[in-house]
Amino acid sequence: MSESISNTTSNMVEHLFRQQSGKMTAILTRIFGFQNSELIEDIIQESFLSALKTWGMKGSPENPEAWLMLVAKNKIINELNLKKRHQEKREQIHYELVFDQIDDLFLDHEIKDSQLRLLFACCHPDLKIRAQIMLTLKTLSGFGDKEIANALLMNPSAVKKGIYRAREVLKTKHDHIGIPFLPEASDRMDTVITIIYLMFNEGYKTTIGKVAINDELCYESIRLAKLLLETNYDDKGKIYALLALMYLTLARFPSRLNSAGELVEIEIQNRSNWDRKLISIGFSFLKKSRTSVSLSKFHLESTVASIHCMANSFEETDWNSILFCYEKLMDISSSFMIRFNHAIALGWAKGFEHGLTELKELEKQSKTQKRYLLYSGIAEMNMQLGRYEVAKSYYQVALDSTESTIDKIFISKKIAKCDQKNIHSN
Amino acid sequence: MNKYMLILFDNIEAFKESSPEDMQAEIGLHMKWIEDLGDHYDSGEPLHMEAKNIKGKDKIVSDGPFIEAKELVGGFYIINANSLEEATELAKGCPVLRLGGSIEVREIIKM
User: Which of A1, A57, A146 sits opposite B46 (nearest CB)?
Assistant: First the structure.
């Protein structure tokens, strides 16, 4: 067999097609607009098909990325020639202009610019958060419907419908060809940052439900957050804070589950499994985040994450500093999660009676969907106070409030522990 | 050893739902198959989709590929084998089958 084929698989980067798809979609959407999303998908699909046929038989080229881009570019030129002949006058002019600039559009910085335009367009405030995430994953991240469904624990046909509807909305919002650089881009930065953060959280959350750690969403969110650093947004510190939070969270990923795929609480996590490299990157971002004039929730949450990372053991955790961060966070938002975490920090910093009182208050006031978390928290506080019977009863309610197998296993172990402690204390 | 031509009919429909990740994985499968063929592999050529058909003594030209064919000739491989049966067994490993495509195995006549 020929030598050229045996050693060619190696020059294809993992997820290369996914990344290329994101870049191509960004360029193509800039040229043809959301109106032509089918055409855009076809051009990308055909480019990949050409690659599949050629590389599959002949081995991949030396520079696969450039090869794919050239194929896509030729297809775009063909399409532009067609459009120039058959479109309305106004559109003809647009396509003619694009034609003249086509080489520029494939330059690295222009590709980044196109990706940013697309990202901001996908995070349109008229779309629901989930639609924004789905559309971003589909277009910028090159995920397929099935992969999105898998990542967001949804049904593939629901994903397909959701993306279709989101595109219909965007068609009406951008009724001109291409995506302009949005004048309100800076205003929309908050939305974009939030979407990236939520995308990361989805990745973090769904891995729990699926046992196996699937951190693709998390890494994709990081990639998109880094893209934001290329903008001229004036509060880069906030983006760095988000990046710090993501790295410091990701660093502790491996020790979150044990070898049996069960959840491990932070108290007994093996800290030597925390990824020191990710932690140090996280800290360097944290330092850069200090350029911000005002503290965002990302600044505070990344600081909390850094405090956990700094403690050599659970006992050494600086709960007073964490409590301080959550107090500041409560000034920014009164969401359930922040109040819940505040109560937990209060318990560890000032005594479990205080934490318990606050959790009970939260139970009365909040109509949260996260009952499971709330009851586990109350149970934990009771356990710390040596009230094992009460703790057990709360754990039992928590057990009934979750569908997740991995949560159920976690709670069952806790209940067993309560029983054990109870025997010893009697 | 004889030479056999494997004519590949791709199931184009199957790629419609493929994600970029799927497509990339597919290339890996093809490369792996060729690697596994070892000395049985001789050569292969992929074909573009665009086609012209010329028919009869009037040489009537029409645009191809043949319509209604969900399966398009996507390329061919030449492999070495001792018999049509062996060539067929080898062809069974080709990834185009996995996606609902088909393969025609023909022995190349020696001069």
Answer: A57
pLDDT at residue number A176: 63
Residue A269's pLDDT is 87
Give B75's strand partners: B8, B46
CA nearest to A137 within chain B: B19
Contact B38 A1 (CB under 8 A): yes
Could you tell me which residues come within 8 angstroms of residue A362 by beta carbon, excluding any fewer than 6 positions away? A336, A339, A340, A343, A368, A374
- My answer on whether omega of the bond before A64 falls inside 30° of 0, hence cis, is no
A51 in B contact zone (CB under 8 Å) = yes
3-state SS class at A215: coil
Between the CA atoms of A101, A105, A109 and A113, what dihedral angle is there, to the nearest 10 degrees?
110
Distance from CA of A301 to the nearest CA of B (A): 33
What pTM does this model have?
Answer: 0.82
User: Within the 11-70 window of chain B, which residues sit less than 8 Å (CB to CB) from chain A?
Assistant: 15-24, 26-31, 34-35, 37-39, 41, 43-47
Inter-CA distances, A200 with A22, A216, A250, Å:
18, 9, 10
- pLDDT attached to residue B65: 63
- CA-wise closest residue to A360 among A248, A352, A94, B111: A352
- The DSSP-derived string for A112-144 is HHHHHHHHHHHT-TTS-HHHHHHHHHHHTS---
Contact A59 B31 (CB under 8 A): yes
* pLDDT of amino acid A212: 41
Partners of A257 in beta bridges: A263
Closest residue of chain B to A147, computed from CA coordinates: B19
Q: Tell me, what's the pLDDT at A426?
A: 62
